[in-house]
TrEMBL record, chain A:
UniProt GO molecular function: 4 iron, 4 sulfur cluster binding; FMN binding; metal ion binding; NADH dehydrogenase (ubiquinone) activity
Transmembrane segments: none
Protein name as annotated: Formate dehydrogenase beta subunit
Essential cofactor(s): FMN
Pfam name, any one: NADH_4Fe-4S
Protein family according to the UniProt entry: Belongs to the complex I 51 kDa subunit family.
Keyword Iron: yes
InterPro entries: NADH-UbQ_OxRdtase_51kDa_CS (IPR001949), Nuo51_FMN-bd (IPR011538), Nuo51_FMN-bd_sf (IPR037225), Nuop51_4Fe4S-bd (IPR019575), Nuop51_4Fe4S-bd_sf (IPR037207)
Positions of the NADH-ubiquinone oxidoreductase 51kDa subunit iron-sulphur binding domain: 416-461
Protein origin, superkingdom: Bacteria
Keywords: 4Fe-4S, Iron, Iron-sulfur, Metal-binding
Automatic annotation (TrEMBL), chain B:
Alphabetical keyword list: 2Fe-2S, Iron, Iron-sulfur, Metal-binding
Name of the protein this chain belongs to: Formate dehydrogenase gamma subunit
Biological source species: Rhodovulum adriaticum
Pfam families linked: 2Fe-2S_thioredx (PF01257)
Cofactor: how and how many bound: Binds 1 [2Fe-2S] cluster.
Length: 504, 150
């Protein structure tokens, strides 16, 4: 009799001790003469429960978490029954039960390297549909679904693909932007570690739609576990799915530069150059990697494609509101009680998500601010917690939804220092192409120091500087750094002495 | 010609057929030699039909590439916002004091190198770090120091 257990090999689970738990499970099974089949899955995205161990009983997956090595003997003693860490059926945990999991449906459920399990859970159906469709039909389905780029800019994916399809040029290229540099974001990582075939299938469909022969995944070097899983997944996918198709995918690793998440900087980096931003036009769709027509999409954009083709564009578009269609994978981190990944149709308010679903702060103190959309996103005070989390509503509230990462801060946060950090980060990471970004970040840090020290003359200078950076930078690095700075100033004037005195 | 130079040239030549080979070449050299000594730049350049200046420009642009040997352990600590929300700034101060190192520095005895990271994707178990590439969540200065510099 074989005992099957499921334990994540996701980076967050490993960061919280999953490997030691795996070793303890194997050792305990050996000691008891039990034949253990330990399936290493991705994460369900409930990071506060990691390492989350699961066992299948009567068709349901029962969870235990968080598990430490010391819990292992008692779990075997009770035959994975009553235990202080027992959570009951995982699917019934409210955090999971309230989600609409489309892109992340398999994440945490299957072994990410088991192609048969992938197929049994609906995988490869989208690619099979695509084989029976013309490129025009595939792109029409994508357009009808309303899928927008998940990297942050929200550009309609169908238009991008159509441009590449119609572009005149040989050796077209598909690039998956896996340089998930925005702090507070980890959805791409979770997907690639938990369900990498979904990304690879999306890339294969893109290749068929536009007529590409080469694909690249540009992965950031900060994700070494993810790189190992992707390498193994690519080997399986090349042998069992892509063989004979004329399309191959290569994994490339970045080298620690944030700006390489911007698509033109990424293409320069992929070509072996410094990762500096290019002026557009030409669009990458016309002249991208080595001048070839290139589809460059975020990981989640590509991973949503198989689902759209398999289940139809209408089903996908039925989720969401207005121009925000489909689902969004929110990532909630920082000082949060129940942090992790929450996939749902857009429209939920910021307060519902942070205070309701995620239970407020980890420290138990009041929430002071939530940074929405990464390091270049605005800080939202609780007064704006009724903002619906859609592209349009976040925009109207003076922020951006971006890659849907939310970072929670309690009332001990110093917004003056966080605003300063936004400039410091920009100074470290600026690629140097645009003067407002390269010089402005350093000057901004100095001017904020003056403001924090109580110099009221610094405020108009800072406003002017932010205006110049916003208008005079090619990409979001310089152009959006004013978002965290100015939102912190606007909503938390008490954390800036100079601002406070100017107001008095 | 020194041994690292010969090896660097072999690695570069092995990648020369790729489209855009320079980053994979630099990663492969650093992975084997631990760093990319500046005197191998001309070898890489020759093998890939680049100028030495182009190689230098790329090596110096990317934070990951180092031109001096790292410590035996590499501690990469996240400085980004989610980790700051969980005491990341105090953690960084304690680590720098405990190791006697600032960012990007290697201890004189070669035991450890301290590197900053701007997000490791471990934002829901902050503060986070990588120890020789292995993820660590909800870290404290004491546990990290005990691991990298016992």
């Amino acid at each position: 009799m074989t005992l099957t257990l499921f334990l994540p090999r996701d980076s967050a689970a490993l960061a919280l001790g999953a490997e030691a738990v795996a070793d303890a499970l194997r050792a305990e099974a050996t000691r008891r003469g039990i034949d253990l089949r330990l399936v290493r899955t991705g994460s369900r995205g409930m990071v506060w429960l990691e390492p989350l161990l699961e066992v299948e009983r009567h068709g349901a997956r029962l969870g235990f978490g968080p598990i430490a090595t010391g819990d292992v003997p008692a779990l075997f003693d009770s035959d994975f029954g009553p235990h202080p860490a027992a959570l009951g059926p995982v699917a019934d945990i409210p955090f999971l039960a309230r989600q609409t999991r489309l892109t992340f449906a398999r994440c945490g459920v299957i072994d990410p390297l088991d192609l048969d399990a992938y197929r049994a859970h609906g995988g490869l159906a989208g690619l099979a549909r695509a084989q029976d469709m013309t490129p025009e039909q595939i792109i029409a389905a994508l357009t009808d679904s309303g899928l927008r780029g998940r990297g942050g800019a929200g550009f309609p994916a169908g238009i991008k693909w159509r441009t590449v399809m119609q572009a005149d040029g040989p050796r077209k290229v598909i690039v998956a932007n896996a340089d998930e540099g925005d702090s507070g974001s980890f959805a791409d990582r979770m997907l690639m570690e938990g369900d990498p075939f979904a990304l690879l299938e999306g890339m294969a469909i893109a290749a068929r739609a536009v007529g590409a022969e080469t694909g690249y995944i540009y992965l950031r070097s900060e994700y070494p576990v993810c790189a190992d899983i992707l390498r193994a997944a690519l080997e399986v996918f090349h042998t069992k799915v892509l063989a004979g198709s004329g399309f191959t995918i290569e994994l490339r690793i970045g080298a620690g530069s944030y700006v390489c998440g911007e698509e033109t900087a990424l293409l320069n980096s992929l070509e072996g150059k410094r990762g500096t931003v290019r002026a557009k036009p030409p669009l990458p769709a016309i002249a991208g990697f080595l001048g070839r027509p290139t589809v460059i999409n975020n990981v989640l954009t590509l991973a949503a494609v198989p689902h759209i083709l398999a289940d139809g564009a209408d089903g996908y578009a039925a989720h969401g509101t207005g121009r925000s269609r489909g689902t969004v994978a929110f990532q909630i981190g920082g000082n949060v009680r129940h942090g992790g990944l929450f996939e749902t149709g857009p429209g939920l308010t910021l307060g519902d998500l942070v205070n309701g679903i995620c239970g407020g702060t980890a420290s138990g103190r009041p929430v002071k601010a939530v940074q929405v959309g990464g390091p270049l996103g605005a800080y939202f005070p609780p007064a704006l917690f009724d903002t619906p989390l859609t592209y349009e509503d976040c925009d109207a509230a003076g922020g951006l939804l971006g890659h849907a990462g939310l970072t929670v801060f309690d009332d001990s946060a110093d917004m003056g220092q966080l605003a300063r950090f936004a400039f410091e980060f920009c100074a470290v990471e600026s690629c140097g192409t645009c003067t407002p970004c390269r010089i402005g970040a350093v000057r901004g840090m100095e001017t904020l120091d003056r403001l924090i020290a109580g110099d009221p003359q610094a405020a108009p200078l800072l406003a002017d500087l932010c205006e110049v950076m916003r208008a005079g930078s090619l990409c979001a690095m310089g152009g959006f750094t004013p978002y965290p700075v100015e939102s912190a100033l606007r909503h938390f004037p008490d954390d800036f002495a100079g601002q406070r005195e100017a107001a008095e | 010609m020194t041994d690292p130079a010969i090896r660097a040239r072999q690695i570069a030549e092995a990648h020369a057929g790729m489209d855009g080979p320079l980053l994979p070449v630099l990663h492969a050299i650093q992975s084997e030699l631990g760093h990319i000594p500046p005197d191998v730049f001309p070898e890489i350049a020759a093998a890939l039909d680049l100028s030495t200046a182009e190689v230098h420009g790329v090596v110096s642009y990317y934070p990951d590439f180092r031109t001096t040997p790292p410590g035996r352990r590499i501690l990469r600590v996240c400085r980004a916002e989610a980790c700051q929300a969980m005491g990341g700034a105090a953690l960084a101060d304690a680590l720098r004091a405990g190791l006697g190192l600032d960012w990007h520095e290697t201890r004189a005895d070669g035991a450890v190198t301290l590197e900053p990271a701007y997000c490791l994707g471990l934002c829901a178990c902050a503060p986070a770090a990588l120890v020789d590439g292995a993820p660590r969540g909800r870290v404290t200065a004491d546990t990290l120091l005990a691991e990298v510099a016992p």
